[in-house]
Amino acid sequence: MSSEAPVFSRSAASTTRRNRKPVRPVVIGLSLVMAAAFGPPAATAGDPGSAGDAPYRGRVLSLMRHMTLQQKVGQLFVIEVAGRHATAVSDAAKAVNQRLYGVDTPAQAIAKYQPGGVIYYTTRVACTGCATDDNIGDPAQVATLSNGLQAASLAQPAHIPLQVSVDQEGGALVARFLAPATQMPGNMALGAGRSTQDAHDSAKVIGEELAAVGVTQDYAPVSDVNINPNNPVIGIRSIGGDPDLVSDLASAQVQGFHAGGVSAVAKHFPGHGDTGVDSHFGLPQVTHSLAQFHAIDLPPFEADIAAGVDTIMTAHVVFPAVDPSGAPATMSHTILTGVLRNELGFTGLIVTDALDMAGATATYPPNVAPVQAILAGADQLLVPPQMDTAYGAVLDAVRNGTISEKRLDASVYRVLLHKYRRGIFADPIVDPAAAPTIMGAPDHLAQAQTITDRTTTLVKNDAGVLPLAAGPRQVLVAGWGVGTTQGIANAMAARGATTQVLESGTTPSTAQIDAAVAAAEDSDLVVVSTNNAYAVNASTGQPTAAAAAQTRLVRALLATSKPVVVAAMRNPYDVASFEEAPTVLDTYGYTADQVESLARVLFGEVDPTGRLPVSVPRADGPGELFPFGFGLGY
């Protein structure tokens, strides 16, 4: 691969946004006015983009005319890098970078490929036994890493800054930045809260904190409509099971992320909410009819587009009713170009979901998937499993005409236009000293708790046990989650209880169940937490071993005749596994704030105002156990 490119003169300029740091390295200062060195050329009929892209179109076209083919191809890729510093990394990080790219450091990977963007991870492991990327430490470190990566990119001949992306959806499942970052309650909890303002504000907090550490793009919001209780990969990552609710709250989040200073990425187009297979490990099929597709799956994405979403991420799912060829959406011209571009009129960036997921690799070899995704209509290729192979395949495809230069330029234009519009060219550097004051700021933490307090749902209170009165009592806290059970116990103790914790994981053993029953006999109250006690094995149609064991634990505790409060800490469908439980609450996650909100609801300090954002089916037959919108109050 050649990385040669023309070097051209530039004038120095800099603009500064809030919490941004003036650019210091000479190479960065020279890079900030890339297009100013060339007078904006007159656009021709064959140029990408449109007159509506002003005032940036001329700058983008000027830049593109000075880019080599290799530099253009590089802009199509979003890569992972290992280590917490751009140029000085641990031996473990060097080993990861060597395995992925044949270089030691993130800066060297940027120099080798000149990619359009990078994505941060914490403990992502791309192969069994491999070390992790490990990018994320404290806020100042991440900000310094971001600046170093931008410096490495701007030092290349084309002087193009990076998109810096991350999956920070909020909630307990997909949050790369943990404490001190503010932990917002997540999508399904927001769905239970029903507030577009809370959805907007939650995204704005996340956006402000990401922008402070140099992240420019968040792969959120999830805009999938979760109508399959057995969905193994979406679940509480979805706002809920109603297209209107998902549309309202997802589009509010798009605007919130933008208000917070990062671009939003709606995912996973054309919809991953009714799948029984995790696309990380297989290729799911969505069996919706065309009518269902337009009524259920498309509305949230249409709302996101109307709200101004910058980027949409593809799903590795097959939609036979939309594309009978059997191609996953990521490689489907019918879906990406026919539906997303032509039918919905989306003009922004299309980024693939990670190309190293089995939903992509099981069907397409590493030299085929990137080319097919581009031909389908994708603009950016996220973490291909073999970067050298992927880069070379796209380069060869352009050279041999499989990918036309016009098609390549259309995507490169969109990538560069995005960077201009989002201010990345003008202001790529952040202030590491300011980052710790923004990430986890007191007002953010307070807002997170306030929003979370509006999301807990009381599903059953048949015995009238709730609300509890504060004061002395013996409480057994049993069930799933080391941190969760201890957090519940701490909250109960703060309100006068004497607690015992017997955590039993996702699959309680017979011995653990017996121990919990014995401890319950000496308690005044039992609080038992569950995590996916409704889960079903897709191949057998029967409850998973973990779900069956958790159900046995709950039923054994109910048989003690002691008051038992069941807290479903993840998906709200768990109640169907133990319909006889008289007291059940849903939290939609297990962040510290969600545990605190659970305690506040238990003691009547806040009213349980959350309403089910999904319907809960019966476990033993057709029909609903609880309808969408159900929820009790005090």
UniProtKB/TrEMBL annotation:
Region feature (Disordered): 1-20
Pfam families noted in UniProt: Glyco_hydro_3 (PF00933), Glyco_hydro_3_C (PF01915)
A Gene Ontology molecular function term of the record: beta-N-acetylhexosaminidase activity
Coiled-coil parts of chain: none
Catalytic activity of the protein: Hydrolysis of terminal non-reducing N-acetyl-D-hexosamine residues in N-acetyl-beta-D-hexosaminides
Entry's EC annotation: 3.2.1.52
Signal peptide: 1-45
Domain Glycoside hydrolase family 3 C-terminal: 457-634
Residue span, Glycoside hydrolase family 3 N-terminal domain: 68-416
Gene Ontology biological-process annotations: carbohydrate metabolic process; peptidoglycan turnover
Keywords: Glycosidase, Hydrolase, Signal
Family the entry assigns: Belongs to the glycosyl hydrolase 3 family.
PANTHER family, per database record: BETA-HEXOSAMINIDASE, BETA-HEXOSAMINIDASE-RELATED
Name this protein carries in UniProt: beta-N-acetylhexosaminidase
